[in-house]
Amino acid sequence: MAARKSSKDGVLSRVSSSISESPIVYKGKRVASDAGFVAKKLLKSTGKAAWIAGTTFLILVVPLIIEMDREAQFNELELQQASLLGAPAVAAPLK
Fold it and tell me: Where on the tree of life does the source sit, at the highest rank (predicted)?
């Protein structure tokens, strides 16, 4: 019975080694490896692009938003002061 089991192991071993050495399996492994490499490069470049976009937004757009908010508050304050002093409220000109 032990001899029979070892002959089955031999057949399975031969079949699995012939399948793993198949050109189709080799090409499949190579394609998977290439796909992994491309995915890694894509993620790396996407991360760099996200970093550049984020820092550019912080440096250029956030100060602009803050300044526009200050200007809107200043215009609102002028309108409030004008109404307290009795002058007719004039809508601020649109820029």
Answer: Eukaryota
CB atoms within 10 A of CB 16: 10
- In contact, 92 and 75? CB cutoff 8 Å: yes
Provide the domain limits for residue 53. Answer: 9-85
Task: Report pLDDT digits (tens) over 70-88.
Answer: 999 999 999 999 888 876 6
Residue 38 belongs to a domain: yes
- From residue 52, alpha-carbon distances to 3, 4, 6, 49, 56 in Å are 67, 66, 62, 5, 6
Is position 90 within any domain?
no
Q: Give the count of domains, the chain.
A: 1
